[in-house]
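Entry 0007
Protein: Heme-binding protein
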Amino acid sequence: MASYPINGLTLDQANTIIAAARARGRELGLLPLTVVVLDAGGQVKAMQREDGSSLLREDVARGKAFGALALGLGGRELARRAQAMPGFMNALSDLAGGRAVPVPGGVLACDAKGVILGAVGISGDVSAQDEVCAVAGIEAAGLRPDTGDAA
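Output (structure tokens):
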């Protein structure tokens, strides 16, 4: 049997995250969501955009996940740092080619030891609700979410 490299999250985990995140969004009656799952190397592992999700939601969701993964910090901590250090966040945005979105809704997906396996970004409703769905998805995959706040 051939062995293939895995860069963090598996495709099955990514699909579980998306399905559970979308289910939580429907349970809460949220606006249509777009869910992006990045692997540990920052590459898109899986993405789904619900019917009715607006045009830039994929970019915003990817930016939330990318920002969290780029600095190894959940979106809540990135938002705090954006408030406290706008110059740094502007530089980060420039360095990242505008791809980092420092707000809640970008959540790191970690194993039981805290090793970052990837990140989830969701956009569609208010950021706090997007984050609730990301956490639900990550937990459904048997992983530990890191939102940037203490657990």
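Curator remark: DSSP finds five helices and five strands in the chain. The chain has one domain: 11-141.
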